[in-house]
Amino acid sequence: MNDELLLVGARVIDPLNAFDGLRDIGIRDGVIVDPATLHAVERLNLKGKVVAPGFIDLHVHLRYPGQTHKEDIRSGTAAAAAGGFTTVLAMPNTVPAVDNPALLADVLRKAATEGAVHVLQAGALTVGRQGEEVTDIAGLKAAGAPVVTDDGSTPQQAAVMRQAMIAAAAAGIAVIDHCEDTNLARPGVMHDGAVARELGLPGQPRSAEEVIVARDIVLAAETGCRLHLQHLSSAGSVAMLRLAQQQGLPVTGEVCPHHLFLTDEACRTFGVNAKMAPPLREEADRQALIEGLRDGTLCAIASDHAPHSAEEKAAGWNKAPFGIVGLEAAVPLCLTELYHRGVLTLSQLIALFTVGPRKVLGLPIGSLALGATADVTILDPDAEHSISVESFASRSRNCPYEGWKCRGKVVGTLVGNTRFLSADYAD
Ligand SMILES: [Zn+2]
Does 53-361 carry CATH code 3.30.750.24? Predict the structure, then answer.
């Protein structure tokens, strides 16, 4: 492959550098360079397309090690590339959990050879994710973890979380947290509301999330630890996060497409493919999450890509695992529902996949500046299409969006020297 490439004709949107306009982008050896310095140039004509910094997904389950019947590094990162993401943050709730520097380094080594996109690996907060003994957080950071989390759960004892935050603050990395009080959440399988009562299913109250959000904010204030709240689902959580930010606390939050575009009503239609943790809530919560994006309280949209096999999901409401695959639907859904409906500008939407995640990770990514790694997401913001779950590169199919009509799609991703262009891309 030619190691020089010129992207021509596109509208370039680079929110970190406050750029939105027509510009050519030069790439040499996987790095963004001044187009004037290129020699024997191959051109990619992107007229009518949008070129953005490579999207970053802060919440992905690649299921390696231990659960590769659901997904593995190869299939999960292929799904990421197809979905427009050039960097993913893998969660450590694997089997075994990624709770020590040696295993973390092993995952990163494997991802460097097998991954289609850049893989970052979060370290676990507690040993075995048991919520009791804090891991070697400084060691995990030294091995490459940009953040730590027990995602899938959180330490139930505040004292353990406090100790973890003290260690993370000392190591200079953020704690990112799955806010769920297990005793309040169990045995709920969906949001505790009118729909759950009608369906006769046990519900999870908002308090299961909100008491942990409150606890974490108090502990972050006391310890000075950088805190990021994962997949927020309730209006109360957004309100507490907003207040914490107004007080100047180092707290950020993310939201997932399913909490933005679905409510607990979806549990009637989609069955266990609407079973998530935290659960889909009510319209007022959905509106509060959208407002949180609009006013900047929430800095990132993350997929919480959670693949499970058809057999596992077939176990029914009470036994099936929580979660849906999201990498390949997230960007088209957000373009359709947030950009085309006028909730956010294209630049604001792109910032939620680039600038926000960059801030959480504390890494110099998500920018098209000269000298940056040539991680690029190419969008056709107006292309009409329907989501086809069968066409997903992911190994799993647990997804409620089959046949959803979308406007706006990902036509390609460039990951350094590697190109992924969709089959219908026409030069
Ligand atoms: Zn989670």
Answer: no
